[in-house]
Amino acid sequence: xxxxxxxxxxxxxxxxxxxxxxxxxxxxxxxxxxxxxxxxxxxxxxxxxxxxxxxxxxxxxxxxxxxxxxxxxxxxxxxxxxxxxxxxxxxxxxxxxxxxxxxxxxxxxxxxxxxxxxxxxxxxxxxxxxxxxxxxxxxxxxxxxxxxxxxxxxxxxxxxxxxxxxxxxxxxxxxxxxxxxxxxxxxxxxxxxxxxxxxxxxxxxxxxxxxxxxxxxxxxxxxxxxxxxxxxxxxxxxxxxxxxxxxxxxxxxxxxxxxxxxxxxxxxxxxxxxxxxxxxxxxxxxxxxxxxxxxxxxxxxxxxxxxxxxxxxxxxxxxxxxxxxxxxxxxxxxxxxxxxxxxxxxxxxxxxxxxxxxxxxxxxxxxxxxxxxxxxxxxxxxxxxx
Length: 386
Description:
Blueprint: H1 2-23, E1 29-34, E2 40-41, E3 44-45, H2 47-56, E4 70-73, E5 76-78, H3 84-97, E6 101-106, H4 119-127, H5 138-144, E7 153-159, H6 166-176, E8 183-184, E9 188-194, H7 198-205, H8 208-224, E10 231-235, H9 239-249, E11 253-255, H10 269-285, E12 293-295, H11 301-305, H12 323-339, E13 348-352, H13 373-379
Parallel strand pairs: 1-6, 1-13, 6-7, 7-9, 9-10, 10-11, 12-13
Antiparallel strand pairs: 2-3, 4-5, 8-9
């Protein structure tokens, strides 16, 4: 009895000592982009989900379907991610993987036949024709109502010019006061913005300077609600463009949504890792503040063979990473984040992607083909500390 008691005391001491060591280290947070286009509306596929379904219906792409999908025939599948049970399971998978937050793609809601009363939402259809989902926020809604949402934080990845609308801004702030909304730098709410070019700036504020005033007012709205000054991150494909536009808007940092590329025959995953590292280093060399993008893949062949109407994507792609390659890539991203903590001042990195299954051949969400391979892989690596 004495021996067992002594072992328990020693074991408890080791746990306390280990926890205190870990708590003394910096933990860079890891987020993942969510593109929720896997739902039904009135028992029919939401307009965007319709194209996801069409892209992945060929039998050779069934392996990329999310875990909740069903194969009905070699050329037909069904799914509906707009279920509480599905979201609950997704949260548990994300927690198992060691992810800290999701970045929910956030854009306009449209009526039948792309109907909208918003000038900003009409403008978005100019850059993304026929991109008019009926219920694009179903994932966020299911997350907020989940009994497990305390297991993973969230933020918003805003798209287009709609974030310039005061009504949209107020809706963001209502979400930002949620206890699970991700903050950085001692309490600053984190927000991403993508697809904001000169066209959007002209609509938003009559140009870049006017748009900066719009976002400055938004910052003040957030502060007036008792929150800290939000940390705003602008996304663009090229570092110089992202840095220039972020400066014009008064944003805090830059990042990227994804890194398309590869070859028609397929390129090794190591090539994508190299491209990502070049992007990070280019931002660092330009003295830009950065949230590193960590792409787990790129393979839009399903969209090349069954095109979506809002953009063209070719057959170029990268091969899926092995478990070892994925683990090493995440270690590399965290090492960069820790080493260049002045550049990555927010101490966070963003993964592309959780569920862009028709565009990324190696999403983290468990799939019919890979099962839980990638969340299991990351569970052996994350969390990582500086």
